User: What shape does this take?
Amino acid sequence: MAAVPVTTVFAASTPNTVPVASGIAISPFLQKVTINQADAQKVFTVTLTNNTHFTQEVALSARDFGSLNETGGILFQGENDYTQKYGLTSWISLESTSVVLEPSASKSVLVTVQNRLSLQPGGHYGAIIASINNRDPTSGNKVSVQQELTSLVFVNKLGGARYDLRLKTITWNGNLFTLPSTVTLRFQNPGNVDVIPRGQVKLKNAGGRVVAQGIINDDSSFVLPESYRQMYVPLQRLAASPVEPPGPYSISVSYRYDGLDRTVTRTEHFIYASAALWLLVIIIAGVVSIKRKSLVIFGRKLAKKLHWPSR
Assistant: This one.
């Protein structure tokens, strides 16, 4: 994957100083490593690039992340039950923990994962953290801003990996008079290796015709082991009449994970009344009300002429 530049940050400026934007990058953003039982170790590299006009010093370290939250945010935490089971830093060593980068220079650092007996089969997750202290060397004001860049490392040790993916809930927007435009899927991964969900969501009318559909996980997001992940699927309307008929509708979700050919399908049903139908009901009710009032008035006039007691 392409290098991910750090967010632009400006040093405190003085009247004679032009603000200097940081431009340190680390790549790849995500590295997936497979270890066989017979491997003694696996070695890969991370590359740091200095896109600024000044020499930069970068500190490197390895850190476990506790898990992902359900929207995909990485939670860097201290040691906990999750990091003890799925962490990686206990088996990672870095060629160097400090790198000096000249302007416009790049440097690669070796990272080694030791395949010791204590590294259990399945997934292990961590990150190489590049910490940067940015200073403007032309300014007398030595204000610094510390930034951290991450290169994620996903290791899968073979010989006991358990792949699994389950769809826990299906929810959607819309209401009785509006068809859904977005479906929210909540996946669970009960296995011990990260998986990438794939599949389709289809909105069907009472006759089984597909009204709208969407692709699951178009950006190839992953679900870590023993965690949940929400994924939002926008539905694209297919060519059809501008007004869909009212009646029972269904949302059908067919899903799998990368590497599995078999799909699982789950369907939810709901009733669509159609705004057009509701408007028609209002119009009919209005007409009936007007006619009823007219009949009442006519009856009163007739009773008056015939000298009937009016009510």
